[in-house]
Specification:
This protein is mainly α. It has one domain (13-101). 63% of the residues lie in helices and 0% in strands. It is built from 4 helices and no strands. α2 (30-46) packs antiparallel against α3. The relative contact order is 0.17.
Length: 115
């Protein structure tokens, strides 16, 4: 069961950040990842109303993409952060596109919202 789905409330930034931290430490983007997860949760809370299970899957996909983009952006932390925010926005928009195809509790992993 996805975190927070028992109450119907989106998981807190701290919960999501803790789940992603171990995998992303290997990519060296822990700081970027933490900022992005907080931004994503705020955006999802205020704009996109989806089932919490779907939101968690979307976070998984977006955070993975953020890790890839951040590793490529070696020009500086500011560039990486801007790219990460763009990734989050793209991910939230993409959530509306494929949310209907993902049922709550499903093990199906949706494709990333962009390449």
């Amino acid at each position: 069961v996805a975190p927070g789905s028992e109450t119907g409330v989106a998981p807190s930034p701290k919960q999501l950040s803790g789940q992603r931290r171990i995998g992303l430490m290997e990519g060296g983007v822990v700081v970027v990842e933490t900022v992005v997860v907080v931004v994503l949760v705020v955006v999802v809370d205020k704009v996109v109303v989806v089932v919490v299970d779907v939101v968690v899957v979307v976070v998984n996909v977006v955070v993975v993409n953020v890790a890839v983009v951040s590793c490529i952006c070696i020009a500086g932390p500011l560039v990486g952060m801007v790219q990460s925010v763009v990734v989050v926005v793209a991910g939230v928009i993409g959530a509306r596109v494929f949310a209907a195809d993902v049922q709550p509790g499903s093990s199906v992993q949706p494709r990333p919202a962009f390449v």
